[in-house]
Write a structure and sequence with these properties.
Ferritin, single chain, three-stranded antiparallel sheet, mainly alpha, 2 domains, elongated
């Protein structure tokens, strides 16, 4: 490996890892407070997994970008591929800012959908230039697909529900007791079943 290529590799990995560091500036402060209090999917991995996984994924992304970059920036398709790669990297960082910094799972879901599409686009353009570079992005694609599900789950489980105020009407049951209105449609509750004692 030429020295020039070695430095390209270091720079490419360094830029990707830097994206992770920037994201962590917004992530770390929100973990013990806001994020810890959220309802989450049962499939949510333990918190300690995220750091090592993202570190490895950023390294793979850096190697993938290097494999494209070393083909020469004079070629138009190389420049285009790296611009698309940079765009998805920016969307990656913005997700952390929106989700953890702004504490907005709904808007983060919009960002991660765009990120997912940008990753697919990046893989497609990388594949035309270097198949190994495209393959290196597949774990990232799979992880972001899973993260999209987790983001969606958090948004669904923690979205404020519309509360409906039911009237204080009561219905007389055959056993002489009364039941009130309940549920989102304000229907009367079921009368007690006299056979169940």
């Amino acid at each position: 490996m030429k020295i020039n290529n070695f430095f390209k590799l270091v720079i490419a990995i360094g830029i990707c890892e830097l994206a992770g560091v920037i994201g962590s500036l917004f992530t770390a402060p929100a973990i013990p407070g806001w994020y810890a209090g959220l309802a989450k999917s049962e499939l949510t991995p333990p918190g300690w997994i995220f750091g090592p996984v993202w570190t490895a994924l950023y390294a793979l992304m850096g190697v993938a970008a290097f494999l494209i970059w070393k083909r020469g920036l004079r070629r138009k398709e190389i420049k285009t591929a790296l611009i698309i790669f940079d765009a998805q990297l920016v969307l990656n960082v913005v997700w952390s800012i929106i989700f953890f910094g702004l504490q907005s799972p709904g808007w983060a879901l919009v960002d991660i959908a765009l990120l997912w599409l940008a990753i697919v686009w990046t893989i497609a353009v990388f594949y035309k230039i270097s198949k190994p570079a495209a393959y290196l992005l597949l774990p990232y694609f799979l992880w972001v697909s899973f993260a999209s599900y987790l983001n969606y789950s958090i948004w669904q489980l923690n979205s404020p529900r519309e509360w409906v105020a039911c009237t204080q009407d009561a219905k007389l049951c055959p056993d002489g007791s009364y039941v009130g209105r309940v549920g989102p449609s304000c229907e009367f509750a079921a009368c007690p079943n006299p056979e169940i004692r």
